[in-house]
Structures are given as C-alpha cells and as structure tokens.
Amino acid sequence: MAATRVGVIGLGSMGLGMAVSALKAGLAVTGFDLSAERRKALAGAGGQVAESLSLLVEEADIVVSVVVNAAQTEAVLFGDQGVAETMPDGAVFISCATMAPKRAAEMAARLEAGGRHYLDAPMSGGTTGANAGALTFMASGSPDAFERAEPALQAMGEKIYRLGDAAGRGSSMKLINQLLVGVHIAAAGEAMAMAAKLGLDLEEVYEVISNSAGASWAFCDRVPSILSGDYSPKSAVSIFTKDLGIVLDTARAEGFPAPLAGNALQAYLMAEAAGMAGDNDSSVVRVYAKLAGLDLPQS
C-alpha cells in the first residue's frame, strides 16, 4: 500500500519539525517554502521539495498549512497561485495558523464547496513539540476531514482534541490558549523585573516560585531565558502582538471585556516598538527593566 502523501506549506521553526515528524512516521512528505535554506533543510532530512504550490499539492492526500495568519492562509488557498483548485478532489487541507474563528469558518465553507475538506487545527507545543511529533492539536471539522487528516495528525501530534464538526471551534480554543499564555508570559516578565528591583537573587526567585503557587508553565519555560540573558527567539514577541490582537478583536466583536489580555498586549507592543519584535517573547521583561533602570543578566 502506498504511503499517505503529505504536502507541508511553510517550513519555518514549526513547519520543518512537523514535516520531519511526518517523515519519521513513514509518510511521503513534500514541502514548500519561499526560503531556499528551509527547502534544503527538508531535503537533507529525506523529504521532497516542490518548486511551486501547485506541484506540492497536485497529488497530495493531505495538505498541512503552517503559515503565520489568516491572510497568508487565504493566499495559499485562494490567491493567484492558490491550491484550492489544484488539490485532488477529496483531499484535506489542515490549517494550523492562529486566526479569528470567523475567518476559519469562511475559508472552510469556500474550500468545501469545491469538493475538498478543511480541518481547522491550530496547535500548541512550540518547536520542541514540532520536532518530537508531540504537538497538541485543537481541531474542528467534518468527520470526513478528520478521517482523511488522521495520518498526519497522529504523526505530528501527541494530543488531538476533536472539538466539533464546525470549523472555527479549533480557532476559538487556540485563542483561549493564546490569551492565557500571553498574559502569563507578560506577568512572569513583570514579576522578574520587580524581583530585580527588590534586590532579590533572580536564580533564587526562579527556584522558589517554580515550586510555589505562583508558578505557571510560562514562568517555568520562559524565565530561564531571562536568567541566561538569551533572547534568541523560540517564540517571538511579534507572535503575541498578532495573537493577542486577534483575541482583542474577537472580544470586541463579541462585546466581551478582556482587560488582562489588553494590558498584556501593551507589554508586547512596547517590546516591539523598542526593536524586539523578532526576539523571544520573554523580552517583555527588558521593557520593565528599561523603565525601572534595572540591570538584567546578559548572555
């Protein structure tokens, strides 16, 4: 029996790891990215590389889109070289971008009208999870979409949550996740900067708080970069200016107050304005340090 054919669009820090995980699971993987370096990385791992989107998807059973946002997803599907018309009939498009739920539902309806399937499947787990095939997928779509997507989801994910038959529910769940993580990282930065202001030993603060009620996954995962002074991007500041912006736009559309998300967004916007858009999201601590005249560890 021939291996399931998977096309991966976007071979960045997440997409490359996902493609390699699919390869390790025995799937036939072809990737596309505008970056020659990223295409070379997939080829070096044993994957095939397509020179265009149409060549990527023309024989794919599953197309995994790992682009940044709704606008890029729409361009991939319906732009001048979009894949909506070149995917085989019955193929499934797995959309992994964080976006407003309404946009996911609209694109699903448009693609499904042409006889293809759409799975709204944003994920969590970062580059570590992508490289290990251990992502968490928050997915929604038709039973047929899930059935067709199953080989790729199992190869790339450790936990796959089926959140209903309607595209948009997966995106809604991802927004809740991003609200919480964004607030927690901003709070960790504020707390560590205040600890420095009070003259506490930051290594000791990390040890104590990591084993106390104030701990969070974000605190435990991000504070080590503050302690080392290494702000190379695992997840960039710009990700949260985007994602918390979507959270706030969605909250406003729903008439729902989200003051904590709004305050956290301002912290990331300040970091971005200070030239840290491409740095690790823990860089919010550097904004507080700058405002308070504090010295933080340097790498």
Question: Biggest sheet, open or closed, and with what strands and sense?
Answer: 6 strands, parallel
Helix content: 40-55%
Instruction: Supply the CATH superfamily name of the largest domain.
Output: NAD(P)-binding Rossmann-like Domain
- How many DSSP helices? 13
Low-confidence spans: pLDDT under 50, at least 5 residues? none
Mean pLDDT: 96
What share of the residues does DSSP label as strand, in percent?
5-15%
- The assigned CATH architecture of the largest domain is 3-Layer(aba) Sandwich
If strands are numbered along the chain, what order do they take across the biggest sheet?
Answer: 3-2-1-4-5-6
Instruction: Based on Cα principal axes, name the global outline.
Output: globular
Q: List the domain count as a whole number.
A: 2
Q: Would you list the SSEs in sequence order as H and E?
A: EHEHEHEHEHEEHEHEHHHHHH
DSSP strand tally: 9
Report the span from N to C terminus: 52 Å
Secondary structure class reads alpha/beta
Give the C-alpha Rg: 20 Å
CATH C-level label of the largest domain: Alpha Beta
CATH topology call of the largest domain = Rossmann fold
